[in-house]
Amino acid sequence: MDLWSNKNLTPFMGVTGHWIQATRVQNAGSIDIILTLCSDLIGFYNVPGSHTGLHLVHAFLHVLD
Questions:
Q1: What is the β-pairing status of strands 30-46 and 2-5?
Q2: Which of 14, 37, 46, 48 is the 20 to 30 Å CA partner of 61?
Q3: Are the beta carbons of 36 and 20 closer than 8 angstroms?
Q4: Number of H helices, E strands in the chain
C-alpha cells in the first residue's frame, strides 16, 4: 500500500498484491521448478480528508472490500 498526491494535491491510495508463482517444467529425465515474481493492482482509491492512522485504515479496508 502506498499513498501519494497528484499535481493538484489530490490524495490517492494504491494497494498491490505480490506473490511467487511456481511452475513445474519437465525436462529430459528431470523436473525443474521455475519461480516467477508476480504482482497485481488490487485497488486504487481517492482518499479525501485527513491522513490520520484511523482514516487510512478505513480507506485501506474500503479498497480491500
A1: unpaired
A2: 37
A3: yes
A4: 1, 3
Q: Give strand pairing partners of 5.
A: 11
Three cell numbers, residue 63 = 479498497
Neighbours of 26 (CB within 10 A): 8
Residues 6+ apart with CB under 8 A from 4: 11, 12, 14
Q: Residue 16 pLDDT more than 90?
A: yes
The pTM score is 0.69
CB 43 within 8 A of CB 3: no
Q: Can you give the pLDDT at residue 62?
A: 85
- Write down the pLDDT at residue 50: 79
Nearest to residue 41, comparing CAs of 60, 19, 15, 21? Answer: 15
Q: Average pLDDT in the 44-64 region?
A: 86
